[in-house]
Design brief:
alpha/beta; 8-stranded parallel β-barrel; disordered N terminus
């Protein structure tokens, strides 16, 4: 039956399709040419253009006159012409296609994804013959495909049954697939190689592949969307291709299949996948030499007539991702720069090329002294804001103030964005009630030294509490609803270089909002180009962590390291895992979704890498001049630190071309130095940089007021206006936030309501109680307790213990130095305690503003 526009345009009733076609992207059926497909971040590219796979599976068929499971040449030519008319640009074959089919596909501009068949359904690792046959099949496919540029990839396997994987063990299967990968690469070095997995074996570690392919059949769209997010997070920086997606029309009908494919393919595009293959082109499907009669997944029937789904996939395949959005709110893209001329031009070129219908670009020049202004002037469509050097947060607030969009997106001057970056951020934000959204930042090709820095610990990355909920998104790739960001007063100007993104994420969550994540909304982020620049960056992060701890102390442990509730993603080193991962397989290995559960990093194993460990080793080395065994102890401690750094470098993820012993040695050195540099600046800032806010009027009111050191103080306030202690606490916290005091709130486990940092060495704990005297009359009691900060106690007690130990061994000079340090810590606490009145004045001012009357001091009986 001839194919016609009218045929598939009228093959379904109006209103069947949930996806409107939008502006069509015409794809001329030009011959493929000589350019091979290549990787381009999380996507595939052909030459300079993005190649998003819009495919269908093709075959197996009954066979042609040559005994091959493909149709005759005339039918192939007709099928390919109709595919191009639907916007299909690729086919997936389950057998090695003949030369004639590859030539016909190339002439029609169709890519061919070759699935290499071998006996994967058998216990193949128990048979040398089966393994040899698999190697030969892969080699034969790669040798044939290397002379045809239209061969977009080789799949070295398809859906090895989970019971076979369990029988052999996942590691053995992974090693064999890696061997097949090498066979394909040796025969066709330029060809891309993948493996078509599916949910029952998603746990296989196939990170050596060029990209990931997954067959997924989930009819519920929300479940499908969530699963795509999960798999994208597992795949990481590699492209993800949907190898099979389909619905049976015998059981669900043609119209339901059309709705299904339109909706699911829309999700694929808006999730940022590299593409998808619809299963299948036709109901004429054979296996083992027999026609399959029990189902009909084709978008055409056995006679070649189009089903309703033909128009559905045409509308999606021929529309850009931005055209698939149901709403396109205006977005303001803000780039803050300070002496960023080296990479700013690349950043702005990428932003000008974004595929989104309504956005503006705002560049905030934060007092740059290089050629930044000249570069921005070459982009007439970019709004420029000039200001003196006030810091990163102030620059971001300036961009926020100038923004006209309902969504404000931020990236950095050392980043360049994917063309669909905004589309995928908006798609994820609009389908959720989140106040903010973020995406991954990838490492571009900048040479082997930058690759080593990218694999070192401490890189900016996202932290996910679940597949779609983020605890933190990095500042180089984040977007906010403008109203939500303004409601929390934007970014805190105290963070001049780093820490602003962490602070704003935590404050949004404290305000009752949540942050979502779009794994396909990627930017490329140039890492520091050498170890010196990297260590300066880590010092800045340590400085930011110290300032963050004053404001969010519940988010840090005793040493000052961040306590993340979610999982850190990205390729940089994360610590040591000393336990094996566990696979959930279901009863008798029959689970439809068999997941890999990775153990958390062993934090105790990372103790030898800490600054505190190194400090003890240095002290032991100094004491080794007096007691020789302490010198040996010091040497052993430093050796253990180096060993931990080597283990981290061994497990670091490096690009294949840079995974050499020299690169591992550089990464090991960075793993050793990074925690020392970061911790040193964290301590330095914590003890010497934090100051009580000087612009707070309470600071002036409290000058000269004496604080009670060494005992608890209790005060009370009387009110007859119905106000209670919760009103007072809210007013105090609001004042502290407004004037940027360091504080901690009760998380539900403490015996106090509020901690106020009045000095780096001291904190004031506040506990409240309320007496109800009827008719809205209440007495609010407050108990203040002055305590040394945790660092202060550790330092004083450690120094005192060291001094006593040295006295016991009659080493007078070390004993005197240690006891002097302990006394200095106590003196510093006493000096800080004299300023505690400033914190008490904050509470008194808030109480008076609420109309509460101070009562005489109340002391316990």
């Amino acid at each position: 039956m001839p194919w016609s526009e009218e045929r598939y345009a009228t093959s379904s009733r109006p209103g069947v399709f949930e996806c409107a076609p939008g502006p069509l992207q015409e794809e001329p059926a030009a011959p493929w040419g000589r350019e091979r497909l290549r990787l381009d971040g999380k996507f595939l590219a052909r030459g300079a253009d993005r190649f998003r796979i819009h495919g269908v599976t093709y075959g197996p068929f009954a066979g042609n006159g040559e005994g091959e499971p493909f149709p005759a040449a005339e039918r192939v030519a007709d099928d390919f012409a109709r595919m191009r008319d639907l916007g299909i640009n690729s086919i997936r074959t389950y057998h090695l296609p003949p030369e004639s089919l590859l030539q016909a596909a190339g002439e029609r501009g169709l890519g061919v994804f070759v699935d290499v068949p071998w006996a994967k359904h058998l216990c193949f690792l128990d048979s040398r013959r089966a393994q040899a046959d698999a190697r030969a099949a892969v080699e034969r496919a790669a040798q044939r495909g290397r002379s045809h540029a239209c061969v977009i990839a080789y799949s070295i396997g398809n859906e090895i049954p989970p019971n076979i994987v369990r029988w052999h063990g996942a590691k053995r299967v992974e090693r064999f697939l890696a061997e097949l990968y090498d066979v394909a690469k040796q025969a066709d070095p330029e060809g891309l190689v993948t493996y078509a997995s599916y949910p029952p074996t998603e746990y296989l570690d196939l990170s050596f592949l060029d990209f990931a392919t997954l067959n997924v059949y989930l009819h519920d769209r929300s479940t499908f969307r969530r699963y795509l997010h999960r798999v994208q997070n597992l795949v990481g920086d590699k492209p993800l291709l949907l190898g099979e997606l389909g619905m049976d029309t015998l059981r669900h009908g043609e119209e339901q299949q059309a709705r299904f494919l339109a909706g699911h393919l829309r999700e694929v595009a808006l999730a940022g996948l590299a593409g998808a293959f619809v299963f299948s082109w036709t109901d004429d499907w054979h296996t083992g030499g027999f026609a399959v009669e029990g189902w009909a997944f084709g978008i055409t029937d056995r006679k070649g007539s189009p089903k309703a789904s033909a128009r559905a996939i045409r509308n999606v395949f021929r529309a850009s991702p931005a055209a698939l959005l149901r709403a396109t709110p205006r977005v303001s893209v803000v780039v803050c720069t300070y002496n960023g001329a080296r990479t700013l031009e690349q950043c702005l070129h990428s932003l000008m090329a974004l595929d989104y219908p309504d956005y503006e670009i705002i560049v905030v020049n934060d007092g740059s002294r290089d050629s930044t202004s000249a570069i921005v002037s070459r982009f007439p469509g970019v709004r420029a804001i000039q200001q003196s050097n006030l810091g990163l947060s102030a620059a971001r607030n300036a961009g926020l103030g100038a923004a006209t969009g309902s969504i404000v997106a931020y990236t950095d001057d050392d980043c360049f964005a994917d063309p669909d970056w905004l589309t995928q951020l908006v798609a994820q934000l609009e389908r959720s009630d989140a106040a903010a959204v973020g995406g991954p930042n990838l490492t571009p090709e900048d040479g082997w030294l930058a690759a080593c820095v990218g694999a070192a610990p401490g890189q900016p990355t996202h932290v996910l509490a679940s597949d779609q909920v983020a605890e933190h998104v990095p500042g180089c790739n984040m977007a906010f609803r403008r109203e939500a960001l303004l409601a929390i007063n934007g970014f805190d100007p105290v963070y001049r270089k780093a820490g602003d993104d962490v602070d704003v994420c935590w404050r949004l969550q404290q305000a009752g909002h949540f942050i979502t994540f779009a794994p396909g909304a990627s930017v490329w982020h140039h890492r520091r180009q050498n170890p010196r620049a990297y260590l300066r960056q880590q010092a800045g992060y340590g400085d930011a962590e110290a300032m963050l701890r004053f404001k969010h102390p519940d988010k840090f442990n005793g040493r000052g390291d961040s306590k993340w509730g979610g999982i850190l993603y990205g390729n940089s080193a994360r610590g040591l895992r000393l336990r094996q991962a566990v696979i959930y397989r279901g009863i008798f290995g029959s689970g439809p979704f068999q997941c890999l559960y990775q153990p958390a990093p062993a934090h105790w194993a990372m103790v030898p890498s800490t600054l505190e460990w190194q400090a003890v080793a240095v002290l032991a080395a100094c004491a080794g001049f007096l007691e020789r065994p302490l010198a040996l102890l010091s040497a052993a401690m430093i050796a253990l630190s180096l060993f931990v750094a080597v283990l981290q470098a061994r497990g670091a993820r490096l690009p294949k071309r840079y995974a050499t012993w020299r690169s591992r040695l550089v990464v090991a050195g960075l793993c050793y130095l990074q925690p020392l540099v970061r911790s040193w600046t964290r301590y330095r800032t914590r003890y010497f940089a934090y100051q009580t806010p000087t612009r707070d009027p309470c600071v002036e009111e409290a000058r000269g007021e004496r604080s009670v050191v060494g005992r608890t103080r209790t005060v009370a306030y009387w009110t007859d206006g119905g106000r209670g202690r919760m009103d007072l606490l809210e007013a105090v916290v609001s004042h502290l936030d407004r004037h940027r005091w360091g504080k901690a709130l009760d998380s539900g486990w403490a015996e106090w309501d509020l901690e106020i940092h009045c000095h780096p060495w001291t904190v004031v704990q506040v506990c409240t109680a309320e007496e109800d005297h009827g008719q809205g009359r209440r007495l609010i009691r407050l108990r203040y307790r002055l305590l040394p900060a945790g660092y202060t106690r550790i330092l004083a007690l450690g120094a005192a213990a060291t001094g006593v130990l040295a006295l016991a061994f009659r080493h007078w000079l070390p004993a005197g130095a240690a006891l002097a340090l302990a006394a200095s810590s106590a003196l510093a606490w006493w000096w800080g305690a004299r300023r505690a009145g400033r914190a008490l004045a904050v509470i008194d001012r808030a109480a008076r503003a609420l109309g509460m009357i101070p009562s005489p001091s109340i002391e316990p009986d």
